[in-house]
Backbone:
C-alpha cells in the first residue's frame, strides 16, 4: 500500500517537473528535491492517485521497493532534464578527464556515503539508473561544483584541480549555506540548483560517456599502444609532386625491350684521332662509306668492300677539323683549322673547290642539298651554296662561342645549332637572320644534336660535362617536350630509323653508348663502348650500325639497331662483305 | 605477405560456402578487418609518399589495383604489426588503429589516419534485418580506398622525409607483446579532421578519419 502511496506523487511530480522544464523555465518554488524528500515520508499528502491502467502497468513493471522511489525520481528527473540541457559536454569532458585514472572507485565510495538508504537500481532500469546513482552521488557529495567550474576553460584543463574545490562546494550545496547562491536563496532553491547541475551530469548513458571519452582521446579501459620498433628508412627522399607526374609502372615490357648486341661488330684502328670534343671527324655517307679525319688526313673506308683509301692530306700548317658527306654520298666537305672549307669528289679523289670565309677553324658542317652550313670557332655559321662562285648565302650570327653542333632537318626547313655558349638555336630556313628559338636550358656546350626521323619537328640535344642532360624539343612551338639526365657528358645522339629509340654516346666515367626508348626514355641498354670518351658517332645508311670513334684511337661498329630476321635482307650485304676482313685492321 | 594471402583465402572460402547473402562469422569478419588494415597501411604509405613509389607493386584486391610494398624491410615491418593486430582483432581487443605520419626532421606529427573499429553486439546484428553480401562489403571497402586515394588532392604536401607509426587502442586486458608499448595518442595539434566513408560487416563497423595539419 505504502508503495503506491509513495509512488504516486513521485510519478506525478516528476512528470510535472519535466513538463515545466520543457517549458523552458524552472520555477524555484516547488523544488523537486523538497518534494522528493517530502514524498519519502508517508505523511505527505499524496497527490491524486492515478488509477489508470497504464500507470498501474508501469508500476508493476517497475516493481521496486518504496526505497527505490527516491532513486527513480532522481533518475527520471535527471532524464527529463537531460532533454532540456543540451550542452553538457564541457562538464562531462572534465569528469572524463578527472576520472582518467581511478574514477570508478571514487564514485563508488561516494555513493555509499551519500545515499545510505538508496536502493539498488531496479533491474528494468539498470542501464539508466547505473549512471544516475553516480550522479546522485555527485549532487550531494562531491562533484557538481567542480563540473560547473569546469565549464571555464582553465578548470577544464586542470582536471585534478577540481577535486579539492569540489569538497567545499559540496558542503555549500548540502548545507545550503549559500555563499554561492547568495543569502536570499532559500534552502530549497539552493537544493534545486544542486539538482539542476546534477541532472545535467547524470544523463550520461554508457554510449554517451564512451563517445565523450573518445572525443577527449581517453578511455578508461583502453590503452594506446604503439609499435615500438622504428619503421625502415625510406631509400630516398620523395617528392610527391614528381611522383604524380609519371606512370606508376615503368614501361619496360618484353615487347619494347629487344635484345641488343653489346659487342662491337668490328673494330678499326684510328691512329692520330684528335681528342677534341668540339670537332666532328666522323661521318657515314649514303654511299655506304665512312669518312674519318685523322690529324691532317681524311680516310674513306668503304663498308661495301672494306677497302680504305686516303682522300686527302692537308698542308702541314693546318689539320682536319670536320668532315661531312653530302646528302647524295658522292662529295665530302672538309673543314680545316684555318677556317677554309674544301669539297672533294670521293669517286674521282679530286678537290672540287675551296670556300673561304671563316677566320677560325670550322668544327662542324651540315648539308642541305646544295647548301653547306659551316660553324666556326668564332660562333659564326655561314651558309654556302656550293654551286655558285659567290658561295656565301647567309650569315647566321647568334652564337658567341664555338659552334660544335649543326644539323639540318631532313626536309631542309629548319637548322639546329649548338654551341659552346650552351645555346641550342633553331633556325628557320626562310629567315636566317635570327634564330627562331634560342634555348638556354643546357648548362654546358651542346655538341649532340639529332632530328627525329619519324617526327619532323622533334629535336634531341645533349649537353656536355656540366649538363649531362638530353632535352627533346618541339621545334614548331619551341617547347621542351622531354628530358632525361644521361648521367655523363653527351657527345653524340643518333635516332634509330627502325625503332622508336635513340642512342646517346657519352664521356667519362663509363664512355658508354646508351640506347633509350622514346618517348618513355627508358634505358634499353648501356654498352661500355670505349676506354676513353666517345667523340663521334655516325649511323650507317641502312640505320642498323653505329660507328663510334673515341680518343682511344678506335673506330668501332655496333649493330645496335639490327633489323628483325624477316627484314634482314639488305643488312646481310654489309655482313657478308665484311667476312673476308680481319677483325682488327689498320687504316693507316 | 604469405600470412595475408592465407587469411584472405580462408575468408573467401568462408564466404563462398553458402552463396551471396552469407553472414560472415565473427572470426571471418575480424580477418577481413585486419586484412583491410594491412591494405590501408600500404595505401597510406604509398599515397603519402612515405616510401618511394617504385617500392610498391600493384595487387588486385577489392576490385582495385592496390599498391603493396615490395621492399623486404617494410614488408617485414608491416607483417610484424599485422600478425599481432590480427590476434587482437580476433579477440576483439582493439577499438582503433592509427597510422601517424611524422616528420623526420622535426618529429612533428603531420598526419593521422584513424580507423575506429566497432564490434557490433549480437543484438545489433540481429536487429539488422538485412545482411550485407560479400559484394556490398567489397564495394564499401572499395569506395573507401578510392577516397583514401583521392585524399591526396586535399591533404597538404608532406615536405621532407617522413616516417610513420602505428598505434592501437587496445582493451586494458589485452595481451601486449614486448614490441608494443604505451604511447600518447599522437594527435595533430590544431588539426583539420575529415571523416571518410564507413564500411562494415555484420559484426564490425569501421570508421575512418584523417586529421592533418593545415598548411600555414
Residues:
Amino acid at each position: 500500500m505504502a508503495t503506491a502511496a509513495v509512488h504516486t506523487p513521485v510519478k506525478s511530480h516528476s512528470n510535472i517537473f519535466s513538463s515545466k522544464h520543457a517549458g523552458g523555465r524552472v520555477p524555484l518554488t516547488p523544488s523537486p528535491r523538497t518534494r522528493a524528500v517530502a514524498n519519502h515520508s508517508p505523511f505527505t499528502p499524496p497527490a491524486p492517485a492515478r488509477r489508470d491502467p497504464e500507470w498501474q502497468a508501469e508500476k508493476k513493471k517497475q516493481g521496486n521497493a518504496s526505497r527505490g522511489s527516491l532513486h527513480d525520481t532522481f533518475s527520471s528527473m535527471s532524464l527529463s532534464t537531460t532533454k532540456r540541457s543540451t550542452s553538457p559536454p564541457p562538464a562531462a569532458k572534465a569528469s572524463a578527464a578527472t576520472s582518467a585514472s581511478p574514477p570508478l572507485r571514487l564514485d563508488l565510495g561516494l555513493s555509499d556515503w551519500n545515499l545510505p538508504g538508496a536502493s539498488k537500481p531496479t533491474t528494468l532500469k539498470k542501464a539508466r539508473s547505473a549512471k544516475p546513482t553516480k550522479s546522485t552521488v555527485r549532487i550531494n557529495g562531491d562533484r557538481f561544483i567542480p563540473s560547473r567550474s569546469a565549464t571555464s576553460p582553465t578548470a577544464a584543463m586542470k582536471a585534478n584541480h577540481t577535486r579539492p574545490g569540489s569538497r567545499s562546494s559540496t558542503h555549500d550545496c548540502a548545507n545550503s549555506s549559500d555563499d554561492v547562491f547568495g543569502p536570499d536563496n532559500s534552502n530549497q532553491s539552493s537544493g534545486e540548483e544542486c539538482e539542476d547541475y546534477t541532472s545535467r551530469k547524470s544523463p550520461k548513458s554508457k554510449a554517451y560517456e564512451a563517445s565523450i571519452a573518445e572525443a577527449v582521446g581517453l578511455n578508461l579501459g583502453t590503452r594506446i599502444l604503439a609499435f615500438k620498433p622504428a619503421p625502415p628508412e625510406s631509400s630516398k627522399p620523395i617528392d610527391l609532386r614528381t611522383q604524380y607526374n609519371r606512370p606508376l609502372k615503368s614501361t619496360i615490357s618484353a615487347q619494347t625491350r629487344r635484345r641488343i648486341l653489346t659487342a662491337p661488330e668490328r673494330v678499326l684502328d684510328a691512329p692520330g684521332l684528335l681528342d677534341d670534343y668540339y670537332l666532328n671527324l666522323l661521318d657515314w655517307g649514303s654511299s655506304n662509306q665512312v669518312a674519318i679525319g685523322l690529324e691532317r688526313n681524311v680516310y674513306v673506308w668503304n663498308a661495301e668492300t672494306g677497302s680504305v683509301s686516303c682522300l686527302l692530306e692537308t698542308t702541314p700548317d693546318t689539320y682536319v677539323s670536320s668532315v661531312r658527306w653530302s646528302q647524295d654520298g658522292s662529295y665530302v666537305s672538309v673543314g680545316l683549322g684555318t677556317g677554309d672549307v674544301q669539297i672533294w669528289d670521293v669517286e674521282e679523289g679530286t678537290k672540287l673547290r675551296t670556300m673561304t670565309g671563316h677566320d677560325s677553324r670550322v668544327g662542324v658542317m651540315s648539308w642541305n642539298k646544295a647548301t653547306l652550313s659551316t660553324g666556326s670557332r668564332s660562333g659564326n655559321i655561314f651558309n654556302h651554296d656550293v654551286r655558285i662562285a659567290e658561295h656565301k648565302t647567309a650569315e647566321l650570327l647568334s652564337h658567341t662561342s664555338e659552334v660544335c653542333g649543326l644539323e639540318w632537318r631532313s626536309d631542309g626547313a629548319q637548322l639546329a645549332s649548338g654551341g659552346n655558349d650552351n645555346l641550342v638555336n633553331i633556325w628557320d630556313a626562310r629567315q636566317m637572320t635570327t634564330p627562331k628559338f634560342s634555348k638556354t636550358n643546357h648548362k654546358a656546350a651542346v655538341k649532340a644534336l639529332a632530328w627525329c626521323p619519324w617526327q619532323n619537328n622533334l629535336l634531341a640535344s645533349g649537353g656536355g660535362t656540366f649538363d649531362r642532360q638530353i632535352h627533346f624539343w618541339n621545334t614548331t612551338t619551341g617547347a621542351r617536350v622531354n628530358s632525361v639526365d644521361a648521367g655523363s657528358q653527351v657527345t653524340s645522339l643518333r635516332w634509330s630509323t627502325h625503332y622508336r629509340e635513340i642512342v646517346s654516346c657519352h664521356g667519362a666515367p663509363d664512355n658508354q653508348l646508351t640506347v633509350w626508348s622514346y618517348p618513355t626514355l627508358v634505358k634499353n641498354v648501356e654498352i661500355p663502348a670505349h676506354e676513353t670518351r666517345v667523340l663521334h658517332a655516325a649511323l650507317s645508311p641502312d640505320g642498323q650500325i653505329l660507328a663510334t670513334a673515341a680518343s682511344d684511337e678506335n673506330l668501332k661498329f655496333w649493330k645496335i639497331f639490327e633489323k628483325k630476321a624477316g627484314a634482314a635482307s639488305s643488312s646481310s650485304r654489309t655482313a657478308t662483305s665484311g667476312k673476308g676482313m680481319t677483325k682488327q685492321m689498320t687504316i693507316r | 605477405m604469405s600470412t595475408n594471402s592465407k587469411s584472405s583465402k580462408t575468408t573467401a572460402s568462408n564466404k563462398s560456402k553458402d552463396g551471396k547473402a552469407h553472414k560472415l562469422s565473427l572470426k571471418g569478419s575480424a580477418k577481413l578487418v585486419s586484412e583491410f588494415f594491412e591494405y590501408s597501411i600500404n595505401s597510406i604509405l604509398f599515397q603519402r609518399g612515405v616510401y618511394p613509389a617504385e617500392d610498391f607493386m600493384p595487387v588486385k584486391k577489392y576490385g582495385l589495383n592496390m599498391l603493396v610494398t615490395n621492399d623486404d624491410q617494410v614488408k617485414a615491418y608491416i607483417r610484424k604489426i599485422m600478425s599481432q593486430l590480427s590476434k587482437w582483432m580476433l579477440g576483439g581487443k582493439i577499438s582503433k588503429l592509427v597510422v601517424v605520419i611524422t616528420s623526420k626532421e622535426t618529429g612533428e606529427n603531420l598526419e593521422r589516419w584513424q580507423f575506429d573499429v566497432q564490434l557490433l553486439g549480437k543484438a545489433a546484428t540481429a536487429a539488422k534485418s538485412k545482411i550485407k553480401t560479400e559484394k556490398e562489403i567489397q564495394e564499401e571497402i572499395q569506395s573507401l580506398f578510392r577516397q583514401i586515394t583521392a585524399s591526396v588532392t586535399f591533404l597538404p604536401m608532406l615536405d621532407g622525409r617522413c616516417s610513420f607509426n602505428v598505434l592501437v587502442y587496445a582493451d586494458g586486458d589485452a595481451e601486449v607483446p614486448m614490441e608494443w608499448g604505451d604511447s600518447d595518442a599522437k594527435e595533430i595539434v590544431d588539426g583539420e579532421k575529415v571523416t571518410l566513408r564507413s564500411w562494415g560487416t555484420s559484426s564490425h563497423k569501421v570508421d575512418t578519419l584523417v586529421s592533418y595539419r593545415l598548411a600555414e
Remarks:
- Residues 409 and 415 of chain A are 6 Å apart (CA to CA).
- The two ends of chain A are 133 Å apart (CA to CA).
